[in-house]
Amino acid sequence: MKRAAVIGVMGAGDGARPADVETAFHLGKAVAERGWILLSGGRNVGVMDAVNKGAKSAGGLTIGIVPEANTDSLSDAVDVGIVSGMGSARNTINVLTSDVVIACGHGGAGTASEIALALKSRKPVVLLNERDVSIMFFKAVGGALVHHAESVAEAIVLVRTLLAKDRPGSTISSD
Amino acid sequence: MKRAAVIGVMGAGDGARPADVETAFHLGKAVAERGWILLSGGRNVGVMDAVNKGAKSAGGLTIGIVPEANTDSLSDAVDVGIVSGMGSARNTINVLTSDVVIACGHGGAGTASEIALALKSRKPVVLLNERDVSIMFFKAVGGALVHHAESVAEAIVLVRTLLAKDRPGSTISSD
Amino acid sequence: MKRAAVIGVMGAGDGARPADVETAFHLGKAVAERGWILLSGGRNVGVMDAVNKGAKSAGGLTIGIVPEANTDSLSDAVDVGIVSGMGSARNTINVLTSDVVIACGHGGAGTASEIALALKSRKPVVLLNERDVSIMFFKAVGGALVHHAESVAEAIVLVRTLLAKDRPGSTISSD
Amino acid sequence: MKRAAVIGVMGAGDGARPADVETAFHLGKAVAERGWILLSGGRNVGVMDAVNKGAKSAGGLTIGIVPEANTDSLSDAVDVGIVSGMGSARNTINVLTSDVVIACGHGGAGTASEIALALKSRKPVVLLNERDVSIMFFKAVGGALVHHAESVAEAIVLVRTLLAKDRPGSTISSD
Predict the structure, then answer these.
(1) How far is B87 from chain D (nearest CA, A)?
(2) pLDDT at position A167, please?
(3) Mutation choice for D interface testing from A66, A68, A83, A86 by most D CBs within 10 A
C-alpha cells in the first residue's frame, strides 16, 4: 500500500492579503479532495489557518508544524500539531516532509525561506499567485524545480503531474 | 471540538529485545483503541516499528518523526512521516508533540535522551517494563513526573489518568 | 566589557563563481581587521572556505556551523566548528547568531534561505555583488532591512553603520 | 595545523548546588590551561556560568550555545554566543560539537539529556561528582563510553587520555 502524498502549503500569517486567504481555503479543499495530506506551518492566522479550514471542509487530514514549544497558536483546523519549539528552523522540516511545496499568494520572509529551503533540498515548488519579481527570482535560483500557477485548478494539475513523475505509483488518490 | 490526544511511544530500534518488541505491538494497539494518536520515532525497526504495527491493527492514526532527511527508513505502518533531517535533535520534537510519553522496554541512549527531554519540558513519562536502575535514575531527575508500569494495561490506566489531569475535557476518545 | 560583534557571511559552496570566491577572501580579511568575529556555514568550498581564509590572513577568529554531524567538510581556516547535524536547519542558527548578515556574490538556494531567514528574524542584511533580481526580490520582502553594496569597502561601511545603530556601544573594535 | 580540541561541560543552571558551581569554576580554568576550547550551554546561571568564568580566568576561549533566540541570558564570560533559538534541541549540537563531554555535578533533566545524546552519537563522557545512581544508569546505557571522576584533576587526566585515543596528533596543547 502506497502512503498518501503530502502537499505542503506555505504562505503568510498575520500579514496575508484577503485575496490570498480566500485562495488558500479553496486550495486546501482541492488538496483534500484528491486524498492528499495537507501539511502547513499550522498557525491560526492568514494563509496557514485558511488552507487547513479548506482541507477540513472536504474531510482531509491536516498536519501543522508550529514554531512554538506549545500548541497555543495552532489552528483549530489542524488534526495533528507537531510542536517543534525551534522557531523558523521548523521551516526545513516543513519542506523535507512535503512531496510538493505550494507557496500561496504574496509571501513574506518566512515563505521565501521555505521556498528557498525546498529548492535547496530539490523539492518541486509551485508558486500560486506570486509576484512577478518572486517568480523571476526563484526561477533564477531553482530553475526547472520552480513552477507557477494563476489559479487553484492550475496548481492542482501541476501537483498531479509532479507527483506522477516523482512517485510513479501514487495515483490511487487522484480522481 | 477537542483535538485527539497524542501519545508518544519511545523505545529501542535495532537493539530492541524480542519481549519489548512484542509489548510494543500490544501497546500500540491499546493506544489506537482509545482513539489516541500514536507518535513515534518512525523507523522500521524494533519498538518503533512494532508499536506502529499494533496501532494500525486497531485502525489508529500513526505519526513518525524520522531523524533522516528522507523516508527511506520509515516504518510501513506509519501514516504520516515527518522528515526532520536533524538526527537526534528530532527527539525534542517527539516529546514536545506528545501529551504523555511512554518509554517501552529496556531503552538505549536515544530513549534515555527522550525521557530526559520530556522531563525537561515538564511532560509526564510512563516507564513500561524498564530496568530498576532506570526507574531510580529518572525518579531522581524527574520526581513526580515519572511513573512506571509493568503491563500495557497498567500503562494505559496511567495515561488516562494523566490526560484527565492535563486535558480535563479530553475524555471523548476513552472507552 | 562589550562582546565582539559577529558578522555572518553567507554564499555559495560548490557552485560559487571565481569572482565571488575572490571577493569573499577580501571580505573575510576586512571583517577580521575590524576585530569582528566571522561566522559562516563553515564548509571547505567556495565562498564559505574563502571568507574564512581571508579572515585568518588577518588573524581573526572564525566560527563555522556545519550542516553535517561531523567535521569532515569543515574548512581548515575555521577555528571553531559548530557541528549541527541538522542540514539546512542550521541556516537559522547562522542568522540568529549574526549581528549583521552579508550575502557575498551570486547565491544559490541555500544563501537565499539564509537571507530570508535573516529578514524573518529582523536582522539587517547586506547584499554584496548580488544579481539585480535578487536585490529587487529581497527589498520587496524585507524593506528597510535590505542593503546592497558593490564593493567590500562599501559593505564594511554599511556594517559599521548598522552595528552602531543596533549596538550603540560597540565601537571598540572599529578602526 | 591541528584544530584545538573542544571540551563540552554540561551541568545544572538555576538548580545547581553551590559545591558543583565551585567545581565548575576550577574545571573551566583547567580546561583553558590545557589550551582546549570550552563549550557549554552558555547561560548566565549555575554550572554554565561558573565554568565559563573559570575558563576566562585562565585566558581560554569560551563558546556558549544558548536555547533562546537572543543573547539576553548569555553568560558575560562567553566569548562567542551561538544563538540557536531551538530550546533543548540545541543539546544535540552541544554534544556533536564536543570531542569529550564532561557532566559536572548533580545534573538535572537537561544535563541527563545531554549525556544520553552524547552516548547516542558515540562521544566519550566523563561524569564528575555525579550521583551513584546516575553512574550506574549511564554505564548500563553507554558502557565503555562512560567514565567517572571525583576531582577536577582526575577528570582532566581522563580527558587527555580520551583525546589522545580519538585524536592521535592533538597533544600540542597539553602540558
Answers:
(1) 9
(2) 65
(3) A86
